Amino acid sequence: MESDVAANTAKRSYPLEDENKLAGIEDGATADQTAGEIKTAYESNADTNAYTDDEKTKLTGIEAGATADQTDAEIATAY
Length: 79
Hints:
This protein is mostly helical.
């Protein structure tokens, strides 16, 4: 490993075997996945805080202003 790094004229700071491994990874690393597969993988990760289709559907069902079924007096009282 040390000889790989010492012989490196490109100032590589990792061993040649790692560079070869990285070179074998396809650009973007998603070439064999559909957009839907990537979206599903992203949304299933609990750490992403992804805005999902279910959340969009739920928000779409909420009336604008969320007071359409209340009178001005009911809103004033609630406020």
